[in-house]
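User: I'm putting together notes for a lab meeting next week and I want to include a structural view of one of the chains we've been expressing. I don't have a solved structure, so I'd like a prediction I can at least talk through. The sequence is below, exactly as it appears in our construct file.
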Amino acid sequence: MSPPDPIAEFLRAYEKAKKKTSDPYDATAMTLATADAEGRPSSRMVLLKTVDQRGFVFYTNYESRKARQLEANPHAALTWHWPPLGLQIRAEGPVARVSAEESDAYFTTRARGSQIAAWASKQSRPLSSRAKLVARVAEMEARYLGRRVPRPPFWGGYLLRPVRMEIWHNQLHRLHDRQVFTRNLTASGDVEGETTWHVERLYP
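Assistant: Thanks for the context. Below is the predicted structure for the 204-residue chain, given as structure tokens.
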């Protein structure tokens, strides 16, 4: 019997969700919950861009509220809810920036308009008017007219390395099926020991 691997289970479900979901559902959409240095939480929807055995990668402005919270308290939680599958998956763990090379590689895949927007938006800062944002977009379009748009140094990816994952299947009469997977990571973020994941069932 192969050892439990919730990331592999996530990937199988994720592929099904991408085939079954459409507007208004986006299989890549996930809730990202963070907390500041005082433990005060906040959450928002972001998009999953990479998933592999390391964990889950999303991108943002490094000066945004979420990024400031992650720098102060580098732990987060993610939740995916795919109603067509009757499935909810949660992941919790430490978060760190991905390499500049990985962020550069992803940035090149974004539409040019989204690349320009990354430069134009001072994410989470006060904005005096919509016209101000439109003017900043025009300024950046002029700056990079006829040129490749480089990745802003203040924009890039974060990797959440899960130490706890829960897979929840909807069942009749609210007798839902819940499995929780846990593991330990070393200080460097490596998996601790040879047994990667411990699994157990939870009451619904």
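A couple of points you could mention at the meeting. Residues 32 and 78 are 5 Å apart (CA to CA). The chain has a mean pLDDT of 93.

User: Perfect, that's what I needed.
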